[in-house]
Amino acid sequence: MLRNTSESFGLVSRILHWLVFVLLVMVTIGGLQLDDLPQGPEKLDTVLTHKSVGVLILALMLLRLVWRLANPKPQPLTDDPKNARISGLVQMLLFLLLIVQPVLGVLMSQAGGHPVSPFGLFELPALVGENKELGKTLHGIHGRLWLVIFGILLIHIAGSLKQHFIHKNRTLVRMIKG
Questions:
Q1: Is the pLDDT of residue 79 over 90?
Q2: What band does 12 get if pLDDT is binned at 50, 70 and 90?
Q3: Distant-in-sequence contacts of 131-135, Cβ < 8 A, 24+ apart
Q4: Nearest 5°: phi and psi at 34?
Q5: Cα(27)–Cα(136) distance, rounded to whole angstroms?
Q6: What is the spatial distance between Cα 95 and Cα 152, in angstroms, rounded to a whole number?
Q7: Is pLDDT above 90 for 146?
Q8: Distance CA 56, CA 19 (A)
Q9: Among 63, 133, 135, 161, which is most exposed with the fewest C-beta within 10 angstroms?
Q10: pLDDT of res. 4
Q11: What is the DSSP letter of 76?
């Protein structure tokens, strides 16, 4: 089934969830390599790929937002209202930050005087003019925010594994199989 129900996630939600996860791993690997690469063609390719995948994550997260608004979210499988609230908060923060982070990346790049052209297909309109100081500030925020995202992602994964292995419910299974 394509759509979510009160009991399970539909195919569209599951594909978007796991696709964003895979792209997040890719963008993270590329981002971590950037500081170690010397200036040159390899670094330029890594930067361009990092930007492109980041914009793709943004587009998919916006699509996920529209899809989530149009589809019911399955009910939590925990009987503990505190766990349900924590889980909802973690998911909401992760969702929000996975939209904010690529926007910061685009703003950082544009403020640094570098256009953003996802996969070389088109150039994003400039949201800010060149401002090297702003670019440096956004670079710092972009890097530090990744640490926050990584921490929240670990909490999200740990919570899913706890539900699966300790509470033995279908929380993880329904995001894999529906």
A1: no
A2: very high
A3: 134/107, 135/108, 135/109, 135/111
A4: -55, -40
A5: 20
A6: 10
A7: yes
A8: 10
A9: 133
A10: 95
A11: P
3-state secondary structure (DSSP) of residue 97: helix
- Which is it for the CA torsion 63, 155, 139, 137, positive or negative? positive
* Mean pLDDT value of segment 29-44: 94
State both tokens at 40. Answer: 């040159």
What is the residue whose two structure tokens read 């925990």?
78
Query: Which helix (DSSP H) or strand (DSSP E) does residue 16 occupy?
Result: helix 11-34
Are 160 and 175 in contact, with CB atoms under 8 Å apart?
yes
Report the first-to-last Cα separation within the chain, whole angstroms: 8
**79: number of Cβ within 10 Å:** 9
Provide the 3-class DSSP secondary structure of residue 36: coil
Contacts of 3 (CB under 8 A, 6+ apart): 10, 12, 71
CA atoms within 13 A on the CB side of 131: 10
CA distance 148 to 27: 15
- Residues contacting residue 114 through CB under 8 Å, at least 6 positions apart: none
Q: Are 176 and 160 in contact (CB under 8 A)?
A: no
Q: What is the mean pLDDT of residues 89-106?
A: 98
Q: What is the C-alpha separation between 14 and 45, in angstroms, rounded?
A: 30
| Residues counted in the chain | 178
